[in-house]
Amino acid sequence: MDSHPDAVKYIGMNGLEHAYQYIYDHQIPLEKVNAGDAVYQACFEMDRDKYSMADMTRNFQQMIDATLLNEYLPTNVLIPEGKRIYIRKWPCFMPERTYYHLDAMELHYVLQGQVTQTVNGQSMVLHTGDMCLIAPEANYSLVITDAKDVMFSIIIYTDMIREILDRMDLEEDTLSSFFSKLIYGQNYIPFLFCDIGVDLYIREIILDMMESQDAEGSYADRYMKTAFELLCLRLLRNHKSRIVAGNTALKRGTRITAIMDYAESHCDTVTLGALAKKYNYSYSYLSSVIKEHYGHSFREILSEIRMEKAACLLKTTTRSVSAISEMLGYGEKSHFFKVFKKKYHMTPEEFRQSGET
């Protein structure tokens, strides 16, 4: 099975995984994790021949901080700056979180064992040799809690997929349709599930990509791109009938609803600028998409959300008007009064005493 000379080093746990396992086994809250603590430094020691302690400590802390601060972990947390295609072993015991790529596709490949993941709310189990291709703007989550389960993740930006498509003379099939729609179409396929079992040739390609990237030679990036193209051609030639498309959905509508759900949950502090940064959009683009989708500006929608919550709090709690105003993010009580009266045509106290619901 493991004919590739470097398979064994990817099957064993590395220092990062041991650090995550320590957190998992001891149920340590992530906000209490300090990558500089001796226990994590001891975990990283096993990889010092390959990486510097400073780099490992910094990368580990960045992942912990990003997990704490983001509902979605953006692409740049998972792929080094300047890379257009990147492969990594998915760390065992890494805390479960939702991931999302705005302009990159991700391919998951199970080297051994099995991995359960959820993509756009649909769960699936990948066994040894299986793959899942996840489109940009789909979200997914997974966690691996058994060191015997080994999965690789390939992240490839859409501009590189476009380059590969230009070179490949693809016929009309599920895989080419998946690539074409994720680049050119609004109606897209969120994911492809490739139930192929063990294909030793694909296994060798994946491991060669890992080895090429680790070597970081002058031809590494070119090799990575060519290897990914070979992988796609192998899928089409030998496994076309085993590629199953996930349910289609409208990218923008699905995504913008999730963004506004987050805004509603954080209406006391959220700003359009913070939302744009969190979800990797420009301020002006996100503003125009919200207006197009809902027919109202973000400011109007946020005000409506706050007023509805204010009305509910006034009717169902005994909190003071000042406390409710502060809870909903109004810095000036007078501004809260003005906005509330404009909507309900009475003051907050009058509303509380009225029969309005």
Structure description:
The chain has 357 residues and is an alpha+beta fold. The chain folds into two domains: 7-247, Jelly Rolls; 251-353, Arc Repressor Mutant, subunit A (Orthogonal Bundle), CATH 1.10.10.60. 50% of the residues lie in helices and 16% in strands. The chain contains 16 helices and 13 strands. The chain has helices spanning 7-11, 15-26, 38-44, 53-69, 75-78, 158-167, 174-184, 200-215, 220-239, 251-265, 272-278, 283-294, 298-316, 321-327, 333-344, 348-353; strands at residues 72-73, 85-89, 98-100, 104-112, 114-119, 122-127, 131-134, 139-142, 150-157, 187-188, 191-194, 243-245, 249-250. It has a six-stranded antiparallel beta sheet. Strands 1-3-8-5-6 form a five-stranded mixed beta sheet. The protein has a two-stranded antiparallel sheet with strand order 10-13. Helix 2 packs antiparallel against helix 3 and helix 8 (200-215) packs antiparallel against helix 9. The chain is globular. Residues 248-252 have low confidence and may be disordered.
